[in-house]
Design goal:
The chain is of the alpha+beta class. The strands form three sheets. Strands 1-11-12-13-14-10 form a six-stranded antiparallel sheet. Strands 4, 5, 6, 7, 8 and 9 form a six-stranded antiparallel sheet that branches. Strand 5 and strand 6 form a beta hairpin. The termini are far apart.
């Protein structure tokens, strides 16, 4: 994760990459920034190792000083579960809902499909889902909820979307993520060791791989808050917004404070609902 040195220079490059891969921009990152170039396999990548060396580091920032419960809401959730207080709709839970729509109702969802196995809610619009939400309390679909099954179809986003379009009753299995905070220093590291993707319409950066680097060091030191494949960055240095706004929030900061959302394992979550 690093600095977008010249916004006017990089924005067209990101736009070109997004256009070439409409389901999401593949980001091989050294520091979440720099120039976009075509790969032999037709994907798009970012390689900023040569640029990072020349980035001036103005304000090193500071590790966030926050209460333990805020640093690790998942720990608070685990405590509630031990005390018998966890309920459907809590962060970290998986639940099933049935949504019925009129034949002329639009679906009413903006969704992010870049992991190819689920649909992550980006926004709720006028339509069947909003009507469902108005009468569903804590089970109302929220931004960042992950739909992992539609009418018994799983692990195939194209087939799941086809079901949503073709059928008027949807039996959905939904994962609600938990959040935790991660603070890492890029210091003199050439790479944070993360590969990321994002959807052009989304509001997260999805982690596709964690390799050698400061994030893996964090994982070793904080196994209860390890950053994993398919986790997503939703806030970076106190900024939430579009993927490009998240990228820009890393500009010239040596310390990166990230809010991560985490979903439970797909197989176990699906098995528990059947």
């Amino acid at each position: 994760l690093g600095s977008l040195v010249a916004q006017a220079f990089y924005a067209p490059l990101f736009a070109a990459c997004a256009a070439s891969d409409p389901r999401g921009l593949s980001l091989c990152l050294a520091m979440l920034a720099a120039c976009c170039c075509a790969k032999a396999d037709g994907g798009d990548a970012i390689d900023d190792s040569s640029i990072v060396k020349s980035i001036p580091k103005r304000d090193p920032g500071a590790m966030l000083d926050v209460p333990a419960a805020a640093r690790d809401p998942a720990a608070a959730q685990r405590q509630r579960k031990r005390e018998g207080g966890e309920s459907l709709g809590d962060p970290g839970t998986t639940f099933s809902v049935t949504v019925t729509r009129g034949a002329d109702d639009p679906i009413g969802l903006d969704i992010d499909l870049i992991d190819n196995v689920s649909a992550v809610v980006v926004g709720v619009k006028a339509g069947a889902v909003r009507k469902w939400n108005e009468r569903s309390g804590v089970l109302a679909l929220q931004v960042h909820d992950r739909i992992i099954e539609v009418n018994r179809v799983t692990m195939d986003t194209s087939a799941m979307i086809a079901k949503l379009k073709a059928e008027t009753t949807w039996n959905l299995v939904v994962q609600r993520p938990s959040e935790f905070l991660v603070s890492v220093s890029r210091a003199d590291a050439p790479s944070l060791g993360m590969d990321l993707r994002y959807a052009p319409n989304g509001n997260t950066l999805m982690i596709t791989q964690v390799g050698d680097g400061p994030v893996q060091d964090w994982n070793r030191a904080n196994p209860d808050r390890a950053v994993c494949k398919h986790d997503r960055i939703v806030e970076l240095n106190r900024v939430r917004g579009t993927p490009l706004e998240l990228l820009r929030a890393s500009e010239d900061a040596e310390v990166l404070n990230m809010t991560i959302i985490h979903y439970g394992p797909l197989d176990a979550s699906l098995a528990a609902q059947h």
